[in-house]
């Protein structure tokens, strides 16, 4: 953390600085720019770039892309009809619902250029994008409030400071900006790990369903994987194959590579999911879940996406939450900037935490409990027993719960049931323990 000593000759000024041009940061920058806010979007890398991800979007994510103005009919996007769950020798198909406020289809696209598309939409809206610009430390005033960031830019790592009254941290699971401002991760909250690899597979690349396997076994212990495997079609001759695991502390870590190798011996030979058809190395990444960094606003800094641990504890989905939180943060900041600096603006910025609680607090609190008591201990198999798999109504209800299908008023019976279940969860408090506090 560095003290702000005023503007230097090479410094830049903005109304808002967004650190990180992933889905959360680009969404925030785009919506801020549309609101007429002067926003700088800092990205330490360049585009296109790779990112460990399942590359699949539920209809809720499609809705966010449409709101951002992304052309989802352009080449490179593949539509999906729903999900296929595989467990215990059974499989069921769950089509995306046709009712409610969301589209009735999902999408897949490689993260290789997904982030680039969103960043360029932010630029088109008026955001200033600075590539190869790594934020190294927050700049703070005498009261400890963030008023900018110091960076190093370009191949020669030239120092440059950026100043703004509000900073949005969207710098991913590393959360360097949040950590530098004293916002530590709540280690009682879930932290999953995912690994994925691309394969060339003509047999599966145009599959209209996202396939999830819930009965995989850990290579080392033989226990049920505390997570699931996926095979997502990309429509370009490839599929994205991966595993997500949320290991319980009593069971130790999971060897994802060996577990995937064991799993792929079970799939049909003609799917071509073999070493000679691999189109990438196996890569892994951490998934910060369940709002494991709080509060989401403090002293001029808002946290969005993985920086705030916004990955769903139910499913491991993170792109949707990142884009939604980016929009919520942008709306909060845009309104706050219409107030004079001081208590009034600070009160307005604190509304971001309230809105995050309102939208996702109960859902994540329930998800954290299920993750702790069931998913991290026994995996998804207990949720997908024979009775559930044999009941279309139970399967659709569980699918809607796992994917947070809708939180808007709906005449759909399953949406109403799921919303009722979530509303029965006590609302998170506004104390420091906040969302998903551990049970005593």
Tell me what you see in this structure.
By secondary structure, the protein is of the alpha/beta class. It has 2 domains: 236 residues, FAD/NAD(P)-binding domain, CATH 3.50.50.60; 97 residues, 2-Layer Sandwich (D-Amino Acid Oxidase, Chain A, domain 2), CATH 3.30.9. The chain is built from 10 helices and 21 strands. A 7-stranded mixed β-sheet has the order 8-7-16-17-18-15-19, sandwiched between helices. Strands 10-4-3-14-21-20 form a 6-stranded mixed β-sheet. Strand 7 and strand 8 form a beta hairpin. This is Geranylgeranyl reductase family protein. It comes from Streptomyces silvae. InterPro entries: FAD-bd, FAD/NAD-bd_sf, Geranylgeranyl_Rdtase_fam, Geranylgeranyl_reductase.
How are the secondary structure elements laid out?
Layout: E1 2-3, E2 12-13, E3 16-19, H1 23-34, E4 39-42, E5 56-57, H2 59-68, E6 78-80, E7 82-87, E8 90-95, E9 106-108, H3 111-125, E10 128-130, E11 133-140, E12 146-153, E13 158-163, E14 166-169, H4 176-180, E15 191-200, E16 209-213, E17 227-233, E18 238-245, H5 256-264, E19 283-288, E20 297-298, E21 301-303, H6 319-336, H7 343-378, H8 386-389, H9 392-402, H10 413-423
Parallel strand pairs: 1-11, 2-13, 3-4, 3-14, 4-10, 7-16, 14-21
Antiparallel strand pairs: 5-9, 6-9, 7-8, 11-12, 12-13, 15-18, 15-19, 16-17, 17-18, 20-21
What ranges have pLDDT less than 50 throughout 5 or more consecutive residues? 430-440
Q: What number of domains?
A: 2
Largest sheet: 7 strands, mixed
The rounded Rg comes to 22 Å
CATH class of the largest domain equals Alpha Beta
Query: Superfamily at the CATH H level of the largest domain?
Result: FAD/NAD(P)-binding domain
